[in-house]
Amino acid sequence: MLIDLSLVDLVEGVRSGKISAESIMLEVYNRIEQYNSHLNVYLSLLPSKTAIARASKIDQKVSSGQKVGKLAGIPLSIKDNICISDPELSNSSGSQILRDYYSPYNATVVEKLLQEDAIIIGTTNMDEFAMGSSTEGSSYGNTLNPWDNERVPGGSSGGGAASVASGMAVFALGSDTGGSIRQPASMCGITGLKPSYGTVSRYGLIAYGSSLDQIGCLAKRASDCRYVFSIINGHDSNEGTSVHIKLPPKSERTDLSKLKICLPEEYFDQDLVDLEVVESVNEISELLRKKGAILERKSIEFLRFVIPTYYVLAFAEASSNLGRFDGIRYGLRDQENLSLRSLYETTRKKGFGEEVKRRIMLGTFVLSSGYYDQYYAQALKVRAWMEYQVEKIFEEFDFLLGPVSPFPAFKIGEKSEDPLEMYLADIYSVLANLTRTPAISIPGRPTKNGLPIGIQLMGKRFQDQSVLSAASALQEITDYHLKRPY
Fold first, then answer.
1. SS3 assignment for 279-338
2. Which of 31, 153, 160, 448 gives 174 a disulfide partner, CB atoms 3.0 to 4.6 angstroms apart?
3. Annotated active-site residue in 20, 70, 77, 79
């Protein structure tokens, strides 16, 4: 099937005329027709006639010798919290409070993709405002895992991960606040990249935690993620946290024998992590050792602070960011009597789901007078200390290696009644967001019953190309990224 080819091969095929963009689109829409209504992946979708017509225009350009972009005719999905100005595609951020909202502008990443002739075919399901680890928090119903329809696809970018894993998109854009790209990539058996904070513009991303959010990509291979990253990264004057630096050039190939990798002892705590996840990490470790890499176990004591630090900061920023959804400017408007207070209260009560309300309330609490210094200010200090400690670790090691999630995809409803247990799903992924470093999830050895398991590689800030190159090299000596649920 065409959708099993690498992104680079598809692009080269379209640009050379050997593969038609229309044939790729037809294959993708055949899969959408088969599986989308069941898996509940897309919240808004281009009509097939529109998508195929756009692909046909690319083929006409190629046949007439006109120049086409680096993503000519490639169908992709974007998470429902990334703004796109298209009359066919809405942006609800998985929430009723933005039901039927159509963005008047494109996010910077969307502009960059469209400039390269990519075709965005739909917006994908997600946990409401990216607050969740299973996509069960969407107000538009659960997305199902393509590998096992009784299980979650991970979250909050679960719709995007499922779209790629099921062949309903060639690649996807998601957002990662505490693992929301890497964790669903892990649970859906694909590759997911969270870039260094500031390397990819957040302009046009509906914010959850502004100092933690980062747009990244989901694809079948690390080489595909590298190709997309080369297009979407770069400084953006519209976005205040966008860094104005030139990233180190990409290395075409990583020599695995020259790597020194840290395996944090805390990642292998039997009280936290599933045994089959540990075995999958150990297998990758042994493959690296056989290639000549040095791997060392090292205790990183501050890892026990990552979950409380992350959630204090994330909840505080969420309560601030979500204050703009009040029924005045856009989205849902509802009120029980003719007063401004009634408008605010009724709109937010009916528009927000339970998890979003919980995080707003807790975030407001940690920012309130008398508690700001005790919680939020203290969390900022701990975060700065963690960044310093991680910089020191990367003076000694090239990468941190470990699990993405402490367990494979769990059954729908298994953890939704216990928020604290759900929060622990992020225990291995939030460090990269707190320290603004790049991290990638690649498929490792699956469980005995065939469920995907992701392996995480985390690198020094702004060394995104090194992380991508090392992940690509690892995928050259494994075949787990080639397995498909279909």
1. HHHHHHHHHHHHCCCEEEEECCHHHHHHHHHHHHHHHHHHHHHHHHCCCCCCCCCCCCCC
2. 160
3. 79
